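# step 3/5: fold
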Amino acid sequence: MTTTRNTEPTARHDHGPGPADARTRRALLVAQFGNSVGDGAFYVTSALYFSRIVGLSAPQIGAGLAVAWGVGSLAGTPLGHLADRRGARGSAVLLALATAAAVASFLLIRSFLPFLLAAILYATAQSGLAAARQALLAGVVAPAARVGMLARLQATLNAGLAVGAALGGLAVAAGTRTAYLAVLGLDALGFLFCALVLHRLPAVAAAPAAAADGPGPTVLRDRPYALLTLLNAVLLLRMPLLSLALPLWIVERTTAPGWTVSALFVLNTGAVMLFQVRVARPVTGLPEAVRAVGRSGAVLLASCVVFATTAAGLGTGPTVAVLVLGAVLQVLAEMAHSAGSWQIGLALAPAGRIGQYQGFYGTGVPLARTFGPLVVSTLLIGGGAAGWLVLGAVFLVAGLVTGPAVRWAERSRPGAH
């Protein structure tokens, strides 16, 4: 991959794209939907495939995925840097193909070591692909339209995940090796389709290397951006909150029926599909982004307070109602945080270095996946209602500190007064 030079002579440069035409916007959405359907099916079935079909133990699966996403979090920045230097479109296509190969390799594994290697390739390619796609989007979509486009992509992602999850549910119901292998094949084909669609997008020129950059990606020396990346990672602890900690809390600490877990997941997915674009529309600059992220921290605190009250033994009906209220607050915070975070991450990335900056900023996702389940589950399941309040306070502080961190980053940019 590193030896493939993509000069793309007819490309638009990252610092001056014109408005994306309807075909380009549609292609971005189609690529997103194509691979998210496969991912949705994969997320539902992967743990069962690795345990029931491959024969791995739960500790092996957990440890392997933790190591894989840890490596992936480190790979995002250099792969994003590569996308800047070699061309975002070509890099995104190659990383989509690498992801497809990683998923396909899961079809062949029979023991822990091949699983670990395949998982590392998968997490690394996914992290790099996310950075390269952000750089590609920045090259074909005008700055003022990027957050709106990302909101539409997020809604499309959730729609694809919902469709894929339904297909994965059919495979789980069948329970056969063939059904599980079909899901993996679908996911691999989804990334092949994504690569094909991305290849047809307008080219984005490789950014020239700047002599003043010094060795390695410059983002590693940008302290205010590093702080913003850390704050974003803290706010992304909402991911394991919804996918792991809340289901465990509902089952172990409340009187709510088990189906409440699925209902809250559907509520979250549906809300993002329907309202993410609307929530993101007012976020057109850094001041609006700062307010959105600050508001998300406060609303996450409110949701944690609401969830904490369900430990009081309210009865089944009232408990379900309170859980729904908490989930509504949580998804409102999620959408506000997403919109503000997208604007901050892109607006503060220098032209020509969007890939490496987005690769670094995006490490919050694998970090949340790696450490979040342990942190959140220990805090909530071990600490009970008090743990919810502590977590809510952490969210609030992260949201409030984002504003000063953004102003620090703005002052540190060349030409700032």
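# step 4/5: annotate
The domain at 221-412 is CATH 1.20.1250.20 (Growth Hormone; Chain: A;).
# step 5/5: archive (pending)
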